[in-house]
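PROTEIN DESIGN WORKSHEET
SECTION A - STRUCTURE
LENGTH: 334
TOKENS:
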């Protein structure tokens, strides 16, 4: 008898069976180049959740503790300090889905809708919530505040970790990405380093969705390092705290020293520290860059079913609302 989580996963034919929306549905209307963007968008959003679920097991551990316990941690097995079920995700994915859900609900940008969804999520007593996120959401609840004031302690990675839906929704217009990335960030985090991290993640995901080279991806990090030297990662020291500089250094180090989605994520989560969040951010960039064929079927199979369904629906819906989709539709009408 088939296990309940096996019924839509055909490991030999991931491309067809893993998608809730059949590829043939796109093929009727879209040129192959546009189908590829849709597929990479799915992979980016799924990559976020897979990195979160995989990394949560080793969150707050040191590399030597991980090595002693798992040799190499490379299976989605849950556990960790939150005692998760295998495939369960944490705040990184849940806040992303709350954000993406608000945009789909409104059919466009809706900062208040995002704040409302964050508040509903906080009231649902999530398994994990960062202190800065909690403070921002509380300020919205008590004062209706949609922009946290600047705070020198706000350089955590809590706004950067929820950039996947923003990158999909604003694909094709950098000015829109800049505006909305910052607006969503400032609901909870107001700091130049957090803002810069949100933008660089958004730009890397978007560039990768459109099929860029590794060199072009690296170029985006060089622009960031020119502006903020602290993000420099050539001499990576292995720091993995929730400080957004440590987070991005870890993600960039493994992104550019590995050659596959799997290798990148395994490297990141075995570094420990804030491993669910470094996993989530690495997953969204590497997912967009390598595409869905590179996501190991064993990881996809373990991911919580409801999360996967929500991601599949959101990825398609958010991309559909993007400036890129509007332009693509116009070009098809000519
Ligand atoms: Mg988390
Ligand atoms: Mg985390």
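SECTION B - SEQUENCE
RESIDUE ASSIGNMENT:
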């Amino acid at each position: 008898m088939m296990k309940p989580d096996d019924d839509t996963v055909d490991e030999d034919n991931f491309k067809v069976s893993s998608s809730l929306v059949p590829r043939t549905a796109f093929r009727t209307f879209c040129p192959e180049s546009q189908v590829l963007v849709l597929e990479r968008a799915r992979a980016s959003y799924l990559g976020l959740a897979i990195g979160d679920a995989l990394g949560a097991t080793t969150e707050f551990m040191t590399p030597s503790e991980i090595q002693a316990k798992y040799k190499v941690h490379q299976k989605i097995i849950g556990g960790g300090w939150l005692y998760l079920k295998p495939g369960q995700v944490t705040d990184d994915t849940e806040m992303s889905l709350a954000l993406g859900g608000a945009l789909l609900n409104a059919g466009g940008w809706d900062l208040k809708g995002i704040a409302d969804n964050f508040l509903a999520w906080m009231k649902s007593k999530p398994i994990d919530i960062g202190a800065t996120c909690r403070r921002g959401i509380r300020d919205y609840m008590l004062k209706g505040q949609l922009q946290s004031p600047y705070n020198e302690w706000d350089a955590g990675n809590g706004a950067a970790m929820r950039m996947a839906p923003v990158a999909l929704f604003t694909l094709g217009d950098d000015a829109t990405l800049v505006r909305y990335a910052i607006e969503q960030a400032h609901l909870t985090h107001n700091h130049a380093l957090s803002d810069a991290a949100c933008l660089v993640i958004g730009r890397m995901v978007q560039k990768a969705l459109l099929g860029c080279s590794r060199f072009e991806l690296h170029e985006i990090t060089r622009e960031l390092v020119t502006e903020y030297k602290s993000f420099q990662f050539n001499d990576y020291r292995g720091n993995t705290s929730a400080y957004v500089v440590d987070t991005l250094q870890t993600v960039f180090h493994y992104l550019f020293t590995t050659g596959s989605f799997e290798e990148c994520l395994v490297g990141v989560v075995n570094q420990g520290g804030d491993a669910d969040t470094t996993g989530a951010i690495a997953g969204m960039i590497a997912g967009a860059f390598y595409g869905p064929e590179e996501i190991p079927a064993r990881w996809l199979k373990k991911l919580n079913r409801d999360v996967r369904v929500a991601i599949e629906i959101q990825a398609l819906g958010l991309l559909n609302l993007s400036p890129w989709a509007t332009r693509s539709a116009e070009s098809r009408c000519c």
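SECTION C - NOTES
The CA atoms of residues 78 and 85 lie 5 Å apart.
Residues 32-55 form the longest helix (24 residues).
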